[in-house]
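Please review the protein record below. Tell me whether the encoded fold seems credible here:
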Amino acid sequence: MSVRPSAVGDDPRVPITFVTGFLGAGKTTLVNHVLADPGSGKCLVIVNEFGEIGIDSDLIARASDDMLELTNGCICCASKDDLIETLYTAFMRRVGALEPQIEFDRVLVETTGIADPSPLAQLLYTDMQLNLSYRLDAIVTLVDLKHVDGQLAASAEARKQVAIADKLILNKRDLVGDEEFRGAVDAVNGLNPYSVKEVTTNSAIGLDKLLDLDLFEPKIRESSLGEWIGMVESAGGSDHGSGDDGCETHDHHDGHDHHHGHDHHDHGDVSAVCIEEEHPLDYHRLMELMVELTREYGDELYRVKGLCRFVGNDRPVILQGVQQVFSPPTYAETWPGGRAQTRLVLIGRGLKGDDIERRLAACRSASDMPVFERGRGSI
């Protein structure tokens, strides 16, 4: 990593929300809700095949082989298994370089046929054309509350879909009793305790809770930043619960008090390691540690996200990575809840929490001098 934190600012790129989930979780129903919503104008919805969605003909204002324009202004495109080319073409139509010209200011991608959206998320950083045109707003995973425990036990794909999500939509609440519901929440918390969660029936959710979330790179809104890192209870929290359940938590304080919580669910060795550190960190040491961890774990390190406190700098720095690709570190405006401390969440397969904890403790700064003034360059 060779980028210093950048300042918060407006990002002109089009935000993309990836919607994933296991078979039968309710993705198609969710997409139909979006397409029919009067407020979804200027939203580009990308699906694999039109036939898989079953769009009401009364909603269609104009149609072609690969695109439908709906009466509410929403655009629906069929990717036909070539999502990258669809995104390229859509943007060229948006800027008038291709006909027909279309207008959209946000994108929702329903990932049927794509079990793992993380390579797509990586492409938004590694593909220059995509990176200049789009930014990742959030990865949203639908969970079937009725069957999630069995699906997580049986499928590595299902475990990863839950583990990488910025937001989990816990669907089919009407089909489970309270005890079964709590068990399902415990199961997903064991893989991803600090994701934002919403509880739904029949995939019914407002657009404001699905699009424009700022959860992958929460640069602007303090509320989304607090939810993203687990410092603020997410919407619907009274129903689904929130907190450290299932997360292997390591708290570092100046008095060296440690609290260890442990995952109550064994889902194929996928776990979350959550670390809090009050002492300021050395920026370069932490960047070096991130490089080391990505080399050691490779694609088995699914997600890294956190707010970091560095010596000599009072502003929180957002750290965000998907597998082996990290976004440039970015300054946030304020600390959520006024708590100035490092809070890191690492999610992956086979993570050694105690080892990661020890190595992060070694990143504590031994100096009060601002790290950027020590002449060491940047990582």
Confidence is low (pLDDT under 50) at residues 234-266, 371-379. The CA atoms of residues 193 and 244 lie 6 Å apart.
